[in-house]
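Researcher: I need the complex structure. Ligand is 2-deoxy-2-amino glucitol-6-phosphate. Inputs:
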Amino acid sequence: MCGIVGYIGKDNAKDVIIDGLKRLEYRGYDSAGIALIVDSEIFTYKKQGKIRNIEIELRKVPVYSNIGIGHTRWATHGKPDDINAHPHLDCTKKIALVHNGIVENYAELRRELQTKGHTFLSQTDTEVIVHLIEEELKTSPDFFTAFLSAVKRLQGSYAIAVITLHQPDTIFVARKDSPLVIGLGEGENFVASDVPAFLSYTNRVIFLDDFEVATVNSNSVSVFNTDGERVEKKVVTVPWSLSQAEKAGYKHFMLKEINEQPRAVADTISGNLSWFRGESYLEGIDPNSFSRIQIVACGTSYHAGLIAKFYLENFAKVPTEVDYASEYRYREPIVDENTLVISITQSGETADTLAAMRLAREKGAKLLTICNVIGSTATREADTVIYTYAGPEISVASTKAFTTQLTALFLFTLYLSRERRALASDEVDSYLKELLELPSKIEAFLNLEREKEVVKKIALEFYRAKDALYLGRHVNYPIALEGALKLKEISYIHAEGYPAGEMKHGPIALIDENIPVVVVATRGKVLDKIVSNVEEVKARKGRVIAVTNPSVKKIGELAEFLIEVPEVNEYLSPIVNVVPLQLFAYYIADFLGYDVDQPRNLAKSVTVE
Ligand code: AGP
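Model: Output:
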């Protein structure tokens, strides 16, 4: 997704903006640009490629300004090139604009503006916005009125930041469906798509809501609705430190975040124990007020939902469906006031997940969201929020968010099971005890240099593979899906996860001596079945990589490569078993020399549909 950074204050806006854009690189982009007000002119510089290209060029141009906007572009309309990069200027070159989102009525607006004499330089939808503001200014008493009028004509999604010579001490912003946050400093203020952009300056944040606009000066911020009425906003102190948002000595954010999982799981448990122990309320959700659950999510978060189905049906005895959010929206789901819809989303900004939540709300469902970002859209639209305390997840490939989602979902399941009398208190206590031991189990694996070396050796053996098959059963079948997703999204190797029992219905035709077959085969009720599946693969010369427990000797005899993980309760095993698969994908991508944290074509938060 695109990244936006704006600054007004006492420092050199160029440096603050470039620094902020670098902290948003994880969002994925293909070009970048900056606009500054310098000596009553708007200076812009934009290029296809990485931010560092701009930084090098800007060092040669001694420009100083205390107000500016910057952008990293993830192309939607118009190919990635210098012309289509943001910022975009109006015809008078007195207005500069950056945008994240999609203007769905841009073609009609473009035609209208062209008939009024506007000429367009780019192929982007974004450029129509800055010309629309210029056109509205002709009939408006001031720039803010023109800005508001233009924004009200937009259809689709937008996060917009504008600077203008008409009012050079103000940044104008607006948001609908694409996130935009305002950072409050001392004698300086910031706007950005996400908090890490300005976290090194301030952690005091205003989260704009849909259909809100704001004027940002160096000493004041005013928020309005699109009718121009003032809106009072809460200032949130985001509990993240800058170090949490930096690499802290790791080669990539992904490796750092894999290793942060013991702490993240522990923090997620402790961060939620208060309502679990009844010391506070899980507001908005009566545990006995619904008869069924529907889970909506995307990508890795969807895989967490598949595992949560096992938890909720096995322990809480609540019928549970799981849908890709992008599918849920169009399948005419049967939803009523007895349905609890749980959205699982790390960012809280995934467009498909938000749309599914809004559909469920329209149909009368209660909404619970499992989310990692305080103040994000999902958390403000749900009835109840259960936060994962994973800290900022920068790498596009989701790791600690996934294991903390499972942790939060297991805790919620225990809460429901107790409140609905589906489990006796002593059973709940016993499962909670096992959950509390989980961080140390994950830590135990991550501290086993020998095991990590094994994973690295296997990665070296297979990093040139063209295909990979991941197999799992029961509660670990979604781990096969997740392992395959990790591999394909950062190494670009075609990988697919499959229920091991399904292999004989087709995929077994893929098996030969060239394809690595990763099997999740830890102790549980279906272990014998998965042993048979491993034998089927071996019989066809398949190369088996098994994630298993040291006590499972049969797998040890069959697999060509063994990755041993600590043994835990079967239902908690996905939280441990996924870790070596994360590392396996990481090492392969690193051996291939790919951009592990910012894989091609991907974005950290998919805020467009
Ligand atoms: C997972 O590694 C990917 N980054 C992606 O599938 C991600 O899980 C998905 O886009 C959902 O994001 P969310 O959790 O922020 O909604």
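Model: Summary of the prediction. DSSP finds 19 helices and 24 strands in the chain.
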